[in-house]
TrEMBL record:
Name of the featured protein: Ribosomal protein S18 acetylase RimI-like enzyme
PROSITE patterns for the chain: GNAT (PS51186)
Gene Ontology molecular function: acyltransferase activity, transferring groups other than amino-acyl groups
Keyword Ribosomal protein: yes
Keywords, ordered alphabetically: Ribonucleoprotein, Ribosomal protein
Any one GO cellular component localisation term in the record: ribosome
UniProt keyword annotation of Ribonucleoprotein present: yes
CDD domains assigned to the protein according to its UniProt record, in alphabetical order: NAT_SF
Annotated Pfam families: Acetyltransf_1
Residues covered by the N-acetyltransferase domain: 3-191
SUPFAM superfamilies, alphabetized: Acyl-CoA N-acyltransferases (Nat)
């Protein structure tokens, strides 16, 4: 399988819709969860969240990247300057952030979506590699992520995997920012 990754701002909106129509949270979130308060998120319709992502895609800079597997839309990663994700600063991960919240040169990876038919085929890793390169090319000095360690999760880890896994980030060179990480780690990579 050939995997390519492109900026969401450069691809047809229909391809973004295909990926975000993956069963589960993507259908209702449209990568807006970390961009607004809980009250705003809960009171915003799915149609309005969809429109918000479309507007972000069109006005730029891109809110994320789209992966293609053999030409088919297969995945998404949300990667932007950390300041674009204000919910992070009110979350439990905030205490482990390596730099001040307003450091504009720090980027964050907050979400992955991989269509079920393309899971366990390297799409997530391709998205991660492309996200790092995109952040670097856009002037980021470091990139931060909030993955989970599936070994620390009791029960089904499926609901947590949209953050990515600790092992995939470690393989890409990320390091833990905190000495004693929780289930959701804060991991960084200097660019």
């Amino acid at each position: 399988m050939q995997i390519t990754v492109r900026s969401a701002s450069e691809v047809p909106w229909a391809d973004v819709v295909t990926v975000m129509s993956t069963p589960g949270d993507p259908r209702t979130c449209w990568c807006q969860y970390f961009k607004v308060t809980n009250a705003v998120f809960e009171s915003t319709s799915t149609a309005d969240k969809t429109e918000a992502l479309r507007a972000q895609k069109e006005r730029g800079p891109t809110p994320g990247l789209i992966a293609y597997a053999d030409g088919e839309p297969a995945g998404w990663v949300s990667v932007e300057p950390r300041v674009n994700f204000p919910r992070l600063f009110r979350s439990r991960v905030a205490a482990s952030m390596a730099q001040p919240p307003d450091a504009a040169s720090i980027w964050s990876i907050v979400c992955f979506v991989v269509a079920k038919a393309h899971r366990r085929q390297g799409v997530g890793n391709a998205l991660l590699d492309a996200a790092v390169e995109h952040a670097r090319a856009s002037g980021a000095t470091s990139i931060e992520a909030y993955p989970v360690d599936v070994a620390e999760i009791t029960g089904s880890p499926g609901g947590y995997l949209y953050h990515g896994t600790v092992s995939m980030f470690r393989t890409a060179g990320f390091e833990d920012a905190a000495d004693e990480p929780a289930i959701r780690h804060v991991m960084t990579l200097s660019l």
